[in-house]
Amino acid sequence: MATYILLSKLTPDGRKTIKERPGRIREVDREVQKMGARVVQQYATLGPYDFVNIVEAPNNETISKVSVDLCARGTVEIMTLVAIQVDSFIASLKKGSKSRAKPKAKKKAKSTKRATTSKAKRKR
Predict the structure, then answer these.
(1) According to the model, what pLDDT value does residue 97 have?
(2) What is the mean pLDDT of each run of 10 residues along the chain (124 residues)?
(3) Taking the complete model, does pTM exceed 0.90, yes or no?
(4) What pairing do the DSSP bridges indicate for beta strands 2-10 and 76-83?
(5) Could you tell me if 38 and 56 are in contact, meaning their C-beta atoms sit under 8 angstroms apart?
(6) CA–CA separation, 47 vs 61, rounded Å?
(7) How many Å apart are CA 19 and CA 6, to the nearest integer?
(8) Domains along the chain?
């Protein structure tokens, strides 16, 4: 399963719903599961986003459906990010750099000719 970060902002309707029914948060988690994804971890946050959700889904299409479905309700706006584990990221960089490695350029021999100065040019 791929990992995704969902940054969520509640709309005014969403804030009203959460205030009146805080348990709605867990209900939505179960709905996400029915759509084929799984909320691994969830944080309420201060700042520009109200929630940070770590979600697993089998593919981009599934998480896209989750995001569109939830946003279409008008209670939340979501920014979805693909998350890559750092070890996997590092391994992909190492793998990529081996296949793209350029052969080292041979050093040019130093020229024995002296550069022509502007004075030498004027004498001609």
Answers:
(1) 73
(2) 97 97 96 98 97 98 97 98 95 79 59 54 55
(3) no
(4) antiparallel
(5) yes
(6) 29
(7) 21
(8) 2-86 (3.30.70.920)
HEC sequence for 33-84 = HHCCCEEEEEEECCCCCCEEEEEEECCHHHHHHHHHHHHHCCCEEEEEEEEC
Tokens representing 68 are 């569109």
Per the listing, tokens 């759509």 go with: 35
Q: What is the pLDDT of residue 77?
A: 98
- Look at the block and give the residue holding tokens 């989750």: 66
Angle at CA of residue 67, ends 25 and 55, nearest 5°: 65
CB atoms under 10 Å from CB of 27, counted, come to 10
